[in-house]
Amino acid sequence: MKAIALVVLVSLLAGVPASASSTPSGAAPAKPDPGVAPPVGHLQGGDTFETAVVIPELPHYTTGTTAGYVDDYDAFCPYTGSISPDVVYAWTADVTGPIDILLCESDYDTKVYVFENEYVPGMWIACNDDNSDCPGPMYRSWIHYLEITAGNTYYVVVDGYGGDFGDYIFSMYETPFTWECDVACPTGAFDENEPDCHDGYVDETNSGCGPTYTWQHPGFNTFICGTSGNYDDNGFRDMDWFEFTLDEAKLVEFTVCAEFPVRFWLFDGSEGCEDPALIMTDSIPPNFLLVGWADLEPGTWWFIVSVDGWLDVPCGSHYVASIFEFGYTPVEKASWGSIKAMYR
Q1: Which helix (H) or strand (E) holds 52?
Q2: Architecture of the CATH domain 53-174
């Protein structure tokens, strides 16, 4: 069984000035829910680049299998030595922009990678083995926000980790910003109730592993309403740290909607501030809904919301976030799943 790589991030602590930032790239903006568009056909991939099966148009949803095929190709991202059989699809782009490629609902430990225009060993342009944002089974693949150029042909290789093979569900579509939202605070939400930041501001409300070591505890299966912004000549950003605990393993959904370009992070807080392990990070433009998923073990977790960088966002700019068990339906009239529909 593979270990999931965790990125240790030190420079995110304490509302880092721009010169000290080292934010890692996460899955890029605007995740759609992989479950909303089920497969609608069967288009089996080809054995090699020469016999690649053509994807006629996007969106493309199909099923297939790698069982009975040959191990022709591999890419290292980061695991090496795969001997899994693989199949190939080809698509000539008629648009310029981002696309998503998913194998999240497949029946085995998948890998997917992409070449542009031709096969040159080692020269793939995107590759994913495990993506923890996939809901459902672990060790599934999702290339999110791959920038493509109209007129180029993209070869997608469906592969596996080690020697794994089997049936796959393959989805490929233009990355949409489909979930527009606003920042109206839902009834009964947890109010961050932090003073607006300003030049010379010292965050004493929920700075997390910052200068005052403070967290807020909104609980679990709840909405959060708060504010953020940049201050001190755009050198700092207000970072709001929320702590929650789990008594048992759960698939958790995180969401943020803000009136500014927003980023969230999820840290494993079990080792404290000396060794915070980054589980995921993501960002999105203003007034779009950002969604992420993570399989979490029992323990302490830190969920952080702030401006995505140093963009001169006015202090006091609003956001609405949530921490929900995936599929949870509360007694109250609105779940965060229904909020997505409200925000359309």
Answers
A1: none
A2: Sandwich (2.60)
